[in-house]
Amino acid sequence: MGRRPSPAATPGLCPGRHGGPVSRVTAFSLVPSLALVAFLVLTGCAAHAPRTTQPPPDMPATFAGEEAFGEHVSRPDVSPGVSEWWQVFDDDRLNTLMRELFSENLNLRAATARLDRAMAAVDAATAARSPSLNLEASGGRQRQSSPQSPLPAPRTADAYRLSAAAAYEIDLWGKLSAREQAAMEDAEAVGEDLRALRVSLSATLADVYHLAAEAQAQIDLNDRAAIHAAHTLDLTRRRYREGLVPLLDVHQARQNLARIKAQRPIHETRLTQSLNALAVLLGRYPGDQTSVFALPALPPDIFAAGLPSRLLINRPDIRAAQRRLQAADARVAAAVADRFPSFSLVAAYGGASADLGSLLASGNIFWNLLVSAAQPLLDGGRREAQIRVSEAEFQELLARYHQAVLQAFTEVEDALAANEAAARRILLLEDQRAAAERTLATALWRYEHGLNDYLPVLQAQTALTDTDSALLTARRQILADRVQLARALGGGF
């Protein structure tokens, strides 16, 4: 009998990590077993350990732009899959279009198909870890000579074979499980891509909806301005016939009316283009969307940006980048495990006979059970190269993940700054409009009382119309900025 090693003599299994002497075994019969155990332990110590995904260093604790709004922020639930951020606009038409978008948009259907394909790849990777069972059958005739006869006479015989063969690869080093994990992470990333597309398309639809509403509002404003300009032209003509104003005033009034009417085709084109874009988003042909929208009122609050660290949870594009990074790490683990021996179990059961009728008779039954092992020795450096390829892919995706976080942070800051500037612009334009109204009223009074010519009236009317048009654009722009902020925060999908 060999001497058993004492507990003090085996403080650790991985040499170089725990150290300590290893006791000598005198029984020769234990050497192969101990050698196999040592080999398994050493290769196990060299296996790839999964790496955790870390956000970029020095991430700010708060968003600087949110401080400009004080308490005038809304804090909707933005948990993944819960929030419908467009509800803040309180627009039933927009809500209806969003529901149609998610059911009819063709890009979403294509993304859903990509997700189905990725899930099928997961099923294939999972199946690789399961045993396989095949039914094999063969039949034929063969001709052979007997070596025992001095003059061998050819003999013809039938040969039939029916068997069931099973095979199973033992995933000792985690190679198959790592490949399955990589496929699962890839599928999760595709799912996050689908959520990111929903965020992007919903934001695009809201923008197009508001563009169409602004174009319609600009047309209505243009029509009102044209009516007012036509009234002014009639007034000027009457005053000219009465000899109160020169012919130049009539020409200027006519020119102003023509200038206003010339703006209408521009707004009509923008409305048509916006409606066409909306139709395509909804899976329709252009021209199928004929509804006219009203520019909604400005929501009283903006979305709360929250903590920057929440972006890692709320933004599906960041979650997708993280999933792809984890998939790349799993592929590194699979490439490392591919260097180690593979072990398989193979079993077969069946019958073989020259007579088809007695194929499964007891005397013709055979079975076998095999254990096989294969250790890569020479492959021209292919496996080592694959490890380097997988590691380089991981480092690339790590940089992309950090870039995605940085880009998301920048988009939120930009959206906050744009919202704050747009709000200030609307206040200034409202002051400008009030001043333009007073200027026009004064100019008209002086013109009607013969204290000045028509030019100040024309200038005041133009200034008021331009200010009203700029206000419409500013209202639409701040709605777009709110949409962009919702997009930057992840949209809640």
Structure summarized in a few sentences:
The chain has 493 residues and is of the alpha+beta class.
Give the CATH class of the domain at 64-129 and 180-338 and 383-488.
Answer: Mainly Alpha
Radius of gyration: 39 Å
CATH topology name of the domain at 64-129 and 180-338 and 383-488, in short, is Outer membrane efflux proteins (OEP)
Please state the overall shape, judged from the principal axes of the Cα atoms. elongated
Number of strands: 6
In helices, the fraction of residues equals: 55-70%
The neighbouring-strand order within the major sheet is: 2-3-5-6
Helix-strand pattern, N to C? Answer: HEHHEEHHEHHEEHH
Distance between the termini: 68 Å
Briefly note the structural class of the backbone. alpha+beta
Looking at CATH, the homologous superfamily of the domain at 64-129 and 180-338 and 383-488 is Outer membrane efflux proteins (OEP)
From the 3D coordinates, which CATH architecture of the domain at 64-129 and 180-338 and 383-488 would you assign?
Up-down Bundle
